[in-house]
Amino acid sequence: MDKFFTAFSHRIATFAGQPLAFIIALLIVIVWAVTGPLFRWSDTWQLVINTGTTIVTFLMVFLIQNAQNRDASAMQAKLDELLRASEGARNQFIGIEHLTEAQLEEIKKELEKLNGNSDGEVVPIARLIERR
Predict the structure, then answer these.
(1) Is there a contact between 83 and 93 (Cβ–Cβ < 8 Å)?
(2) How far apart are CA 59 and CA 97, in angstroms?
(3) CB neighbourhood size of 39 (10 A)
(4) Spatial distance between the Cα atoms of 82 and 55, rounded to a whole number of angstroms
(5) Which of 7, 94, 113, 126 has its CA 20 to 30 A from that of 54?
(6) Confidence (pTM)
(7) Where are the alpha helices (H) located in the chain, listed in sequence order?
């Protein structure tokens, strides 16, 4: 089931980001609008588009979230491998995405202090480059 859902959500998310998907959605809205006079602008006519868009939106949220979660996990694994393989890198940063927000904020503050930024200001990139 997991493989099927992963493949399915990947295909749908990829298709949803294509111009063809937008054109199809636009055509559906145009057909719906053109049929308005045919159905005398009835409540049922309006309910069709409202229900359709609600269902599609509801389902797309889960499919796109699944695709984003997989992308973020893959990116994190790649970054962890770079940390692991780089000499001088601090391996204790591997897996920090599992920490709480407060713990991550503490690490961020410590790193800012190491960069000479103890008051929380953004250090200009030129200054960081000069330190190398």
Answers:
(1) yes
(2) 27
(3) 13
(4) 41
(5) 7
(6) 0.64
(7) 2-16, 19-34, 43-85, 101-114, 125-131
DSSP 8-class letter at 117 = -
List CB contacts of 16: < 8 A, sequence separation 6 or more.
60, 63, 64
CB 15 within 8 Å of CB 21: yes
CA separation (Å) from 91 to 85, 87, 98, 115?
9, 10, 15, 19
47 CB neighbour count, 10 Å cutoff: 10
**Tens of pLDDT, residues 94-115:** 888 899 999 999 988 888 887 7
Q: Which amino acid is at 127?
A: R
Report the Cα 78 to chain-centroid distance in Å: 17
What SS3 state is found at 44?
helix
